[in-house]
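FYI - complex with 5'-O-[(L-methionyl)-sulphamoyl]adenosine, inputs then prediction.
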Amino acid sequence: MAFYVTTPIYYVNDAPHLGHAYSTIGADILARHHRQRGEDVFFLTGTDEHGEPVAQAAEREGVSPKELADRNAKRFEDLMPRINASNDFFIRTSDEQHKRRVQEVLQRVYDNGHVYKGVYEGWYCPRCADFKTEQELGPGNTCLIHHIPLQREREDNWFFRLSAFQEPLERLYLDHTDFVTPRTRYNEALSFITGGLNDVSLSRSQISWGVEVPWDANQVFYVWFDALLNYYTALSFARPGEDLTERFWPASFHVLGKDILKFHAVFWPAILMAAEIEVPRRLFIHGWLLLDGEKMSKSLGNVLDPFEVMDRFGTDALRYYCFREVAFGQDGSISTAGFESRYETELANEYGNLASRTLAMIARYRDGTVPAVDVDPALAPDFEGLAEEVRSLLDQAEISAALERIWQRVRRLNRYVEESAPWQLAKDEERAQELDIALRSLAEGLRVVTVLLHPYVPDTAAKLLAALGLDDGGNGVAMSLEGARFGAHPGGGRVEKLGQLFPKIA
Ligand code: MSP
């Protein structure tokens, strides 16, 4: 089965911040989880390089848009391995192959009769690269997101007949009630559609940094259409000499923030319908990470630098924290204090200590061999159905809810250590059998939670599974979801001691 997941492609007018890392890690968790299922996965991320925001930023810095794009795209590309994103490709919209494909698709939209010439007049935010409707105007004609004055623009443009797709879009929403999740976003998008759709400008005439309109050399495509199409074009050139479109289109999941809902939930399916291309299966809309109550964004100057956080706490800690602190799908505040507290109490104490104690006790009491006995029948019911539960939550991209379910078992195992008190059992030869069962159950429980935590904390999981003697040489068997059942892995194997997984931070 194919699973194709994407992130938004990021503007190169500025450096990456934690908000960008957030969308990417969210999509990465889904990609890794689906690989654990043994599916054929393709995970795409990249940069959105055209349009006014980039052209203006380049002008401010006195360089060409291409120079700025090259410089900043590299920073996003470098972010990916740092956050341990397992993306299969990194698309840049300035790539000639992307541009050609955009032209092909939009020419088809034109040939199908969905494009006409008109005059546009309206309020435009250059940072959003978006024309605002009356409902979207802030006080004094300002942008509600960026708090900057909007520009009154008037120009001859090519228009996309979005209004003609009102009915097909309504039908799409009614036939596929999970097209957009969470439900509140579905309702928001649907009510935008049923409220009546105006045609939208498909091209811009006053800038040249973009993809040329093939039937009118004086215009470039409006950056949003160029950008949205990345999800489709990438498949045609991600692997030289191979076209992956058949294999992976339509996309299984687009992951994106609520700020760009309208483009993805309304424009995107409409333009695909107009080009006679299948629409994606699902969109998952996440909320904003807030700092001081505001959306973190470079233009507001309130950003947490993911590189700094990772230098201090490590990549896995960042990946874990973002999805633990804020429920994926909702807005939520993050802070350095919150980060430090979860690192200490949850990662270091609950998970890290569970791992080091378990391994140390097996080393000490059983010379490093997991006892070859059955798991404790008193503990087994607490793991019953866990992998299935995680699976069905992640089917809905409920990343935080799935993490919570797994973490309940981490806590359960800690309680089990206290209840069974192996150090007491070890004092009494007659209770050797009980000690065997306790150690085997702890090793097995630790294995199960670690396999399930792998998408969240991949480095830690790999290290821990190797210490549990489950290094599979990279073939993925030890990581498979199939094996994440309590009792599925037999005892008898050798384990190794492990240092602190999450060391104290000075
Ligand atoms: N280039 C467009 C997207 C085109 S997709 C075809 C764009 N880029 S962006 O650089 O502004 O990044 C947008 C995405 O970054 C948001 O949709 C969201 O996924 C993520 N985030 C940016 N700031 C964020 C927060 N403060 N919190 C959470 N996510 C945020 O829009």
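The chain has 18 helices and 19 strands. The pocket of 5'-O-[(L-methionyl)-sulphamoyl]adenosine is lined by residues 8-11, 19-20, 22-23, 48, 227-228, 230, 256-257, 259-260, 288-289, 295-297 (CB under 6 Å).
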